[in-house]
Amino acid sequence: MFRGSQFAVGRAGCPGSGRMVRDMVCAAVLLCGSLAAWGQTSGSQTSGTSNPLPTGILVDVGGYRVHLHCTGNGSPTIFIVGAAFSFDWELVQREIAKVSRVCTFDPSGTAWSDSFATAIRELDPGASPNSAPTCEDRVNEIHRLIETAPIGGPLLLVGFSVGALWERLYAANYPQDIAGMVIVDHAFLPEPGAAARSTGAKAPSRAYTPPVLVAQAPMVLGFEDDVNFGRLPERDQALHRWALAQHPVRPGEAMVVDCVAQIRRATRGRSFPLGDLPLTVIRTGDQSPGYDALQTRLLALSRQSQIVMAWQSTHMVPIDEPDVIVKAIEQIVERERARGGDRKMRP
């Protein structure tokens, strides 16, 4: 298991310098604002007596607890892999709950879930308590949560930003009972020289906020900075601010590099690694170098893929245009219910 300390992230760029980054054909650049919503450190959250009550339940996933929030009924179960806090998905979750069961969660080190320092003691007793979570840690945690809760299949996975990388690695490692996938503004690594070109780019429209490069730490934009943050119910806005104050763990560039390397190993360069699995890729009007090429590569993950534009969104699609995500999920739900039968991927 890769420990986060093996991929130290600096202001100057990606770990390991150029070759590793150039070899990462299909991963994430611009872990923009949403990543800032995960806090600044990999330490444990701040504990306190005034913490709000969880919206869902705390599930023991092997010596530590992860917060899970499920609503609605029906099959398939929509499991939102991340990123962002569970309550940041409220505008999507409340609509999907009207048609099927939908679950969000908070990874260890965020919101009500136990700290990652607690988790790492169970996962790898020999690891440093200051270790950062790896891509494998996150994917295995998701799998234990799904198996323990139990959430039950078939599953429709939804991954946002770096969560799309967790989603893809999960699908590669645990293809059984996956009914479909929705990728929401997949994070990616810059092309060589793209960082310098992107910093001077102008926004294509008033509605678009250019993402912030991971290497340009500290990242300062988050859901709370988005013009549409106020669309969330007041309760969820308050929960978001509370969760930020707990110093939650956030994914960063090292996580992306790690995820991409593991996805490449897991898929072994196969064409259409998702087979005929229904896949919807939601993109924004991002004009960053390499962003358009990424969308083409994502479409090549499945023979049954389509791309959908979120024209009025920044990176924060779950609050800017939640209806785009809802419609994409509903289409796959309808297709799965009409199809029935074999739900496994066929590479």
Characterization of the model:
The protein is of the alpha/beta class. It has a single domain, classed as Rossmann fold (3-Layer(aba) Sandwich), CATH 3.40.50.1820. Helix content is about 30%, strand content about 15%. It has 11 helices and 8 strands. It has helices at about 20-25, 90-95, 115-125, 135-150, 160-175, 195-200, 235-245, 255-265, 290-300, 315-320, 320-340, and strands spanning about 55-60, 65-70, 75-80, 100-105, 155-160, 180-185, 280-285, 305-310. It has an 8-stranded mixed sheet, with helices on both faces. Strand 1 (about 55-60) and strand 2 form a beta hairpin. Helix 2 (about 90-95) packs parallel to helix 11, helix 4 packs across helix 5 (about 160-175) and helix 5 (about 160-175) runs parallel beside helix 8. The chain is globular, with a radius of gyration of 18 Å. The relative contact order is 0.21. Residues about 1-45, about 195-220 and about 340-345 have low confidence and may be disordered.
CATH homologous superfamily descriptor: Alpha/Beta hydrolase fold, catalytic domain
Low-confidence stretches: 1-44, 195-220, 341-347
Largest sheet: 8 strands, mixed
Distance between the ends:
26 Å
Number of discrete domains: 1
Q: Class by helix and strand content? A: alpha/beta
Mean pLDDT: 80
